Automatic annotation (TrEMBL):
Cited PANTHER family: MUTATOR TRANSPOSASE MUDRA PROTEIN (PTHR31973:SF187), POLYPROTEIN, PUTATIVE-RELATED (PTHR31973)
Gene Ontology terms, MF aspect: zinc ion binding
Keywords of this entry: Metal-binding, Zinc, Zinc-finger
Domain SWIM-type: 18-50
InterPro entries: Znf_PMZ, Znf_SWIM
Species for this entry: Hevea brasiliensis
PROSITE patterns xrefs: ZF_SWIM
Name of the molecule in the record: SWIM-type domain-containing protein
């Protein structure tokens, strides 16, 4: 490894030669450019300068960004379950109001109805068993 100018380096790997710029976070090998993680050539230069490797990682790979993304997924999931429960309750109310006393409810026609139909059938079954 040979410092060229400023924070640019010429890194040799056998017959191959790569130019690394730690200021621009690039290497002519192009892996650092593509993935946002320093390649071996970049790591060699960063270590040579005794800099912290984490300063040269793309923020996309940081723990803080990962944790914030995980929290937003939990919010979306909980919102979706609330919407699904609300839709199932609405479907149940519509089915009960449209059926005369004692008649069977129609078979479900979509995924929400299918889910609700199966869950209410299981609840009725468990109630009957506990009363027996």
């Amino acid at each position: 490894m040979t410092p060229v100018v400023g924070n640019k380096f010429q890194v040799s790997n056998g017959e191959e030669v790569f130019i690394v710029s730690i200021i621009h976070k690039t290497c002519s090998f192009r892996a650092w450019d593509l993935y946002g993680i320093p390649c071996t050539h970049g790591i060699a230069c960063i270590n040579f300068m005794k800099h912290d490797l984490l300063e040269y990682m793309d923020p996309y790979y940081s723990k803080n960004l990962y944790m914030s993304a995980e929290r937003s997924v939990e919010v979306v999931y909980s919102d979706a379950s609330i919407v699904a429960a609300s839709a199932a309750k609405t479907i149940q109310n519509e089915c009960q109001s449209s059926q005369p006393n004692g008649s069977q409810a129609p078979r479900p026609t979509n995924a929400y109805e299918e889910f609700y139909h199966e869950s209410t059938s299981m609840q009725k079954l468990s109630v009957r068993r506990s009363n027996a």
